[in-house]
Design brief:
Blueprint: E1 3-4, H1 14-25, H2 42-59, E2 65-70, H3 73-85, E3 91-96, H4 99-108, E4 113-119, E5 141-144, E6 146-147, E7 152-153, E8 164-167, E9 184-188, E10 199-204, H5 205-208, H6 221-226, H7 236-251, H8 254-275, E11 280-281, E12 292-296, H9 300-312, E13 315-316, E14 327-330, H10 337-353
Parallel strand pairs: 1-13, 3-4, 3-5, 5-8, 8-9
Antiparallel strand pairs: 2-10, 6-7, 9-10, 11-12, 12-14
Helix pairs in contact: 1-7, 2-7, 3-4, 8-10
Length: about 350
């Protein structure tokens, strides 16, 4: 048996994989593969429309928030956001809490002024910055709600008067938050939303009115809204898998139900990490991620031995990011709690022997 703890692309529900498999040979009884259907046909327009409707329902969005399915990954959003909303003589506020936030800061600096209002870089990104102030003149505040690499998560969202922009790539729809507070949300689908190749963007129409410069059509959010996410040929299969994942989440009971499961999974794993002396979690307790648990083994020989044990028992994706080292276990929505139980049993056995 394989236990998939990959950080991204991450685990998908078996039901989603089975429905996607069937659609590869016959999409909804059309006799065509999902890979063959025209994107400007009623068959695929229905996929996009249902995906948008489910997103609005699951996130409880306001009527003014638009849902887009775009390409280019979250990395494209690092520069698409400031290209649209940061004037050359303006300033945007950024929170530097991890590698992805730091990359977004670098890209934003190409388009205007950047004020880093809080940073945990000097502490190795092992906590979320606090006590920062956002200047009233800022075009927006950009945050990363969950830091996949470092294993930290924002559990309290900033209460600010400027537009709030968030990279939610690794924890979107994993917990209940007030999504209506955000001027713009973006998330690569490959962790909690579906397959790699599509990026969900939720943007409020009021934010669209703040566009500061003319930009190429493919980078203009207004153009994508006007064209219903089909300004060009979309990643049809990835969008369809996203729809299937949204359907699965609704069938589970929605965000509240999945949040309860996610809390149970993370509590089980962190209890093991805190109680077994061989392992050492490195993130401040109050900022631990419910999606990506990061930890180390201080003895290099035991680290290799544990990695070998994981490999032998089918525990996939446990090695930490190359920039951090150690280990990382990702607990995305689709991960069964039984997989977490199996991993913690392996940890307890390894701890007892060493």
């Amino acid at each position: 048996m394989v236990y998939n703890f990959n950080a991204g692309p991450g685990i998908l529900p078996p039901e989603v994989l089975e429905d996607a498999r069937r659609a590869l040979t016959d999409f909804n009884g059309t006799g065509l593969s999902i890979l063959e259907i025209g994107h400007r046909t009623p068959a695929f327009e229905a996929v996009v429309s249902e995906g948008q409707a489910l997103t609005r329902e699951l996130m409880d969005l306001s009527p003014t928030q638009e849902v887009l399915f775009l390409q280019g990954g979250a990395t494209t959003q690092f520069y698409q956001v400031p290209m649209n909303f940061l004037a050359a003589d303006g300033h945007a506020a950024y929170l530097d809490a991890g590698i992805w936030g730091s990359k977004a800061i670098k890209e934003a600096g190409l388009w205007g002024g950047v004020e880093v209002v809080g940073s945990s870089r000097e502490q190795g990104y092992r906590s979320i910055p606090r006590g920062y102030e956002v200047p009233a003149h800022a075009a927006y505040l950009h945050i990363t709600t969950n830091n996949t690499v470092e294993g930290t998560q924002m559990h309290e969202m900033p209460d600010i008067s400027v537009p709030l922009v968030a990279d939610m790539s690794s924890d979107i729809l994993s917990r209940r938050i007030d999504f209506r507070r955000y001027a713009l949300i973006y998330a690569g689908a490959q962790k909690n939303l579906g397959a790699a190749g599509v990026t969900m963007v939720v943007v409020d129409r009021a934010q669209l009115d703040r566009q500061v410069r003319r930009v190429p059509a493919m980078l203009d959010y207004r153009q994508h809204v006007e064209n219903g996410s089909m300004l060009n040929t979309p990643p049809v299969f990835a969008v369809y898998v996203c729809l299937l994942t949204l359907r699965w989440l609704k069938s589970k009971g929605g965000v509240d139900a999945i949040e309860a499961e996610n809390r149970e999974k993370s509590a089980m794993l962190y209890e093991a990490l805190d109680s077994l002396p061989v392992f050492r979690p490195i993130v401040a307790k109050e900022d631990r991620s419910g999606m990506n648990a990061v930890f180390v083994i201080d003895d290099p020989a035991l680290e290799k031995s544990f990695m070998d044990r994981c490999k032998a028992e089918g525990m996939v994706g446990v090695r930490g990011h190359r920039s951090v080292g150690g280990f990382r276990v990702s607990l995305y929505n689709a991960l069964p709690i039984g997989h977490v139980s199996a991993f913690t049993e392996l940890m307890r056995d390894f701890n007892q022997k060493h």
